[in-house]
């Protein structure tokens, strides 16, 4: 009988170790989720602030009717490139949040009010 008691004690110890490991993993995930949520809030705040304008304000000399067409196209390409970089960064953040929460990207997009065409 003592042998089965030792085996039972070993199983209990292993179960305690697994539970402790799971608790540590859960705490790490909760911390990471809070960190990502804070990063998201910071990014939203910076997007709404003057620190990070999406496009430079138009200057008085930027009348499109008198501007060189090539310069106008080049300007649009630069702005489109900036937009794509910002959008890609947002999608990466959403994917990280989805992965951390065990959700699909679509579910996270819906939670944050991001539509299919955004």
TrEMBL record:
Biased composition, class Basic and acidic residues, residue ranges: 9-18
Gene3D superfamilies: 1.20.5.170
Domain of life: Eukaryota
Gene Ontology CC terms, in alphabetical order: Swi5-Sfr1 complex; Swi5-Swi2 complex
InterPro entries reported in the protein's UniProt record: DNA-repair_Swi5
GO BP term, example: meiotic joint molecule formation
Similarity annotation: Belongs to the SWI5/SAE3 family.
Name recorded for this polypeptide: DNA repair protein Swi5/Sae3
């Amino acid at each position: 009988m003592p042998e089965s008691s030792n085996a039972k004690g070993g199983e209990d110890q292993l179960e305690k170790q697994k539970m402790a490991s799971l608790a540590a993993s859960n705490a790490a995930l909760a911390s990471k989720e809070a960190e990502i949520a804070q990063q998201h809030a910071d990014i939203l705040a910076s997007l709404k602030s003057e620190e990070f304008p999406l496009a430079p304000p138009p200057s008085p000399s930027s009348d499109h009717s008198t501007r060189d067409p090539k310069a106008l196209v080049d300007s649009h390409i630069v702005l489109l490139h900036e937009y794509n970089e910002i959008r890609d960064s947002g999608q990466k953040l959403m994917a990280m949040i989805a992965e951390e929460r065990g959700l699909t990207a679509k579910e996270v997009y819906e939670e944050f009010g991001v539509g299919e065409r955004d």
